[in-house]
Amino acid sequence: MIKETKLMNKSFLIAGAVAAVTAILTSCGDKKAEAPNPASQPVPVNIYVVTPEKATYYDMYPGTVVAMNQVDIRAQTEGYVTGIFFKDGAHVIKGQKLYQIDVSKYQASVNQSKASIQVAEANLAQAQKDADRYIYLNEHDAVARQTLDHALTTLQNAKNQLAAAKQDAVKTQTDLNYSVIRAPFDGTIGISQVREGASVSPSTTILNTISTENPMAVDILINEKQIGRFLTLQQSKTTLADSVFTLQLPDNTMYNAVGQIYTMDRGVNPQTGSMTVRLTFPNLGSQLRAGMSPKVRVRNTDNQEQMIIPLKAVTEQMGEYFVYIKKDTAIAAPGTADNKKAPAPTVAPHAIQKKIVLGAVIADRVIVKSGLEIGDSVIVDGVQKLHDGSLVTLGAKK
């Protein structure tokens, strides 16, 4: 019995040893079959070496086209519109007849005023004769002093009545004149807001709008930090190139004329920290219309060299901008067991993330204001596969 037990224990030991050896062999086999970790593989990239260069670029500002002179045409008299003497949207000249408001009652008032003047003139003539007569009689003590005083008072009243009649005639003639509305200056008139037969009221009813058409103004808003730059542009406008101010129309085509600074507003808006700058442009073919929203391109006049990199190298995170640069990092080799001298360290290129501040975009490139140094190797291809510290392998320089 004891002998059988020993044999069984020996069998179990042999089986356990065989199982352990099998597990070890299996484990070794699994390690040999394990795929390499992709994160440890170098990412193939291309680089761009930062070098200083001069750049021509434009700052873009939203603009609003406004007329240099624009007024609303309002009625100055009350009545019905009896005539419209222009075509909507046409060019009109100063003094041209535009509207006529019913003149019948104003003409009647003018006629009445003229008649009142005639009556006042006749009364004045009679009063003058009476006064002259009583003055003569008074000189010969042939009339009472009171009678002369009454005659002189009547004469003065007659003069005052004539003056009042003449003033009333001026008023009625002015009303009559206002019943015919004329263009205040040369310009383009809009679409009429009233038609014949419409009732209009003084100073409240807008009949139309007229504006000058050449040149046209374009207003932009600038930050208060840019005031110095625009003051320099305004003061040096005779020496700068003609292409400093250009327009990009709403359909994204370029306007075939250049502008200049007309004026800058008197102060800064304390709520927004901005100031209005008004530019003027010739209106070629009446392309510029009041209310349009083109973009004003202001050419950079700074001749200093800039750091410019491909735009595709830039990544954005939470409103901040970053690039990866290639950095060669030395990796020390492990030492030997017999204390012999360790092999020389190996150099492995890594991707290092840097935060940058961007300037103007120039086509497919962008100016970097800060965050990089001349000579940095910026990674431009393979950026999507990188993280800070990734191993990289180099392709061709861009």
CATH architecture assignment of the largest domain:
Beta Barrel
User: Could you give a short account of the major beta sheet?
Assistant: 6 strands, antiparallel
Query: C-alpha Rg, in Å?
Result: 47 Å
Question: Globular, elongated, flat, extended or rod-shaped: what is the shape?
Answer: rod-shaped
- The tally of structural domains comes to 3
Strand order of the largest sheet: 2-17-21-20-19-18
Write down the overall mean pLDDT: 80
Q: Termini, distance in Å?
A: 86 Å
Question: Considering DSSP H and I runs of 4 or more, what fraction of the residues is helical?
Answer: 25-40%
Properties at a glance:
single chain; 398 residues; alpha+beta; Elongation Factor Tu (Ef-tu), domain 3; Helix Hairpins; 3 domains; six-stranded antiparallel β-sheet; 4 helices
Written description of the protein model:
The chain has helices spanning 2-33, 104-139, 145-178, 227-235, and strands spanning 43-49, 52-53, 58-67, 70-74, 79-84, 91-92, 97-101, 180-182, 187-189, 199-200, 206-211, 216-223, 245-248, 260-264, 274-281, 295-299, 306-310, 315-317, 320-331, 346-362, 365-370, 377-381, 392-397. It contains four helices and 23 strands. By secondary structure, the chain is an alpha+beta fold. It has three domains: 39-55 and 304-397, conserved putative lor/sdh protein from methanococcus maripaludis s2 fold; 59-67 and 211-299, Elongation Factor Tu (Ef-tu), domain 3 (Beta Barrel), CATH 2.40.30; 103-178, Helix hairpin bin (Helix Hairpins, Orthogonal Bundle), CATH 1.10.287.470. The strands form five sheets. The protein has a six-stranded antiparallel β-sheet with strand order 2-17-21-20-19-18, with no helix packed on it. It has a six-stranded antiparallel β-sheet with strand order 13-16-3-12-15-14, with helices on one face. Helix 2 (104-139) packs antiparallel against helix 3 (145-178).
